[in-house]
Amino acid sequence: MLKLPGNLDAEQFLARHWQKKPLLMPQAVDKLRPAVTRNELAWLATLDDVESRIVFTDRSHDRVRYRAETGPFDEEFLAALPARDWTLLVHDVEKHLPTMRRLFDLIPFIPDWRIDDLMVSFAAPGGGVGPHRDNYDVFLCQGIGVREWHVTSDDVANDPHASDDLALTTEFTGEISHECRNGDVLYLPPGVAHWGTAHRACLTYSIGMRAPQVSDLAETLPDAERDDVFYTDENLQAGEARPGYISEIAAHRAVQVSGAGDSGLEQMTQALGRFATETKQWITPVSPDKSELGEIVAALEAGKTLRIHGMTRIAWSDDAVFVNGGSTERPPGSRQVLENLCAQRKLQLPSDAAPAWHGMAAWMAKRGAFEYVK
Ligand code: SIN
Ligand code: CO
């Protein structure tokens, strides 16, 4: 877990900062591990199923301009990048390099279904994406190198010259100005403007959240009053987070945000579970064919341990299990098994597992939950 500053504990962090106020956490981690290298990141950016961008900073005019190009990139193009003023950003790194998921252990007090992805950026000196706001909470964890951050909770005007894909604000200095080094972490709630520029070539690991808008839950909420508002949980309690668990409290919050009236909590949990485990089309694990499925099920029945596929999103609630946007009934007595499965990303059915658990595991396998190793 992060070492929070000033003797804050997780409960105090949630009460004072989560979804409310930025927090700079110098040396919140001894050394950020696991890490990726600049070369690994560049290799990821050459792959078709990896979402990547390069943002170039152009300082040759009266004002600084930013320009984005989207990947995948050729190896030659990456090798020929200039010495300064660009940053390469790679999304969903933990889905492609599953060991990187261990960085999520830094924030055990946040329910993991709220985590969207680990984005890693490598910035050459002078590189950065420009001043902007994000819609979601983020923990910006500094790896090697030095990056200067500016953060402000003030209303900052949009930059009228910026292109739509970058949605920049005008420049500012802000209430936090800090040179982040290896192990420093910056927490930002949604909508807080920020801006990080590499002073020395650096790697930054962003643990980014996701939250549904009411429109994402629309099928469940025909009578919702507003559909453009985001799910919020500023009253989150540290004890709520349990690996993979979507609690009834979370469903209550979603109902409140939507103004849809307190009926159908179970339906709301279903909608949240499907949303939380929905995968992006290009990083959805392929479902096994019939003979592969037979082998996976046989392996499970023989008591073998199967690993959850790096791209699989998985969650569970009091009544249901969710995998990659689909759901099935949760077998009685399966809480601990599911919690372990979500924490360790592997499943070994106990020898006395009830038939319903086998049914659940077979359903998971069909949805591409497991790594298939021949
Ligand atoms: C970055 O890593 O350069 C950008 C992260 C962010 O501002 O959200
Ligand atoms: Co940002």
Question: How would you describe this structure to a colleague?
Answer:
The protein is of the alpha+beta class. The protein has 3 domains: 200 residues, Cupin (Jelly Rolls, Sandwich), CATH 2.60.120.650; 64 residues, no CATH class; 84 residues, 50S ribosomal protein L16 arginine hydroxylase, Chain A, Domain 2 (Malonyl-Coenzyme A Acyl Carrier Protein, domain 2), CATH 3.40.366. It is 22% helix and 22% strand. The protein contains 9 helices and 16 strands. Strands 1-9-6-11-5-4-2-3 form an 8-stranded antiparallel beta sheet. A hairpin with a 2-residue loop joins strand 14 and strand 15. It is globular, with a radius of gyration of 22 Å. The two termini are 36 Å apart. It binds succinic acid and cobalt (II) ion. Succinic acid binds next to strand 6, strand 10 and strand 11. Cobalt (II) ion binds next to loops.
SSE sequence, one letter per element:
HEHEEHEHEEEEEEEHHHEEEEHEH
Uncertain runs are none
Structural class computed from helices and strand pairing? alpha+beta
CATH homologous superfamily classification of the largest domain: Cupin
Ligands bound, unique = succinic acid, cobalt (II) ion
As laid out across the biggest beta sheet, the strand order is 1-9-6-11-5-4-2-3
Q: Would you give the CATH topology of the largest domain? A: Jelly Rolls
Q: Report the span from N to C terminus.
A: 36 Å
* Amount of helix: 10-25%
- Number of E-type strands: 16
Overall tally of structural domains: 3
